[in-house]
């Protein structure tokens, strides 16, 4: 666990507010407070994992569930047909600013490549 509890720890514990769009026993999805696209949702596992680098073979089910849920939320929010992007930033050089594994679901506009 990181030295300090992050906002995602608090959201997963239910002690910080979030604009939830989906929740189940394994995953939470909520709107990003600094959206980079018309639809920008963050997905986090309820059980903390600092980054993708910390994933073990035993985490295959939750990692798959995160991706499955991203597609489910994309459908729910009406961006599945036009397309969307799923991003996992791992490490500070890749843009990971919160030490808690999370996926960005982005859509509602054309995405450029390379992403930056």
Characterise the protein shown here.
- A hairpin with a 7-residue loop joins strand 2 and strand 3.
- The protein has one domain: HIT-like (HIT family, subunit A, 2-Layer Sandwich), CATH 3.30.428.
- The mean pLDDT is 95.
- It is globular.
- It is built from 2 helices and 5 strands.
- By secondary structure, it is α+β, with helices and mostly antiparallel strands.
Nearest-angstrom radius of gyration?
A: 14 Å
What's the CATH topology label?
HIT family, subunit A
* First-residue to last-residue Cα separation: 29 Å
The number of helical segments is: 2
DSSP E strands, number: 5
CATH homologous superfamily - what is it? HIT-like
* Portion in helices: 10-25%
- What is the topology, as strand order, of the major beta sheet? 1-2-3-5-4
Content of β-strand: 15-25%
Q: Tell me, what is the CATH class?
A: Alpha Beta
> From the coordinates shown, what is the CATH architecture?
2-Layer Sandwich
What's the order of the H and E elements?
A: HEEEHEE
What would the average pLDDT be, to the nearest integer? Answer: 95
SS-based class = alpha+beta
**What shape does the CA trace take?**
globular
Provide the number of structural domains: 1
Uncertain spans: none
Query: The biggest beta sheet, please?
Result: 5 strands, antiparallel
Fill in the keyword field for this structure.
single chain, 116 residues, alpha+beta, HIT family, subunit A, 5-stranded antiparallel sheet, 5 strands, 21% helix, 22% strand, globular
């Amino acid at each position: 666990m990181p030295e300090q509890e992050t906002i995602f720890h608090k959201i997963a514990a239910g002690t910080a507010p979030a604009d939830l769009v989906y929740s189940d026993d394994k995953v939470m999805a909520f709107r990003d407070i600094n959206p980079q696209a018309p639809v920008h949702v963050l997905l986090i596992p309820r059980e903390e994992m600092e980054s993708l680098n910390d994933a073990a073979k035993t985490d295959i089910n939750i990692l798959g569930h995160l991706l499955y849920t991203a597609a489910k939320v994309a459908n729910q929010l009406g961006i599945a047909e036009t397309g969307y992007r799923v991003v996992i930033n791992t490490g500070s050089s890749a843009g990971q600013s919160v030490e808690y594994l999370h996926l960005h679901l982005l859509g509602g506009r054309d995405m450029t490549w390379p992403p930056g």
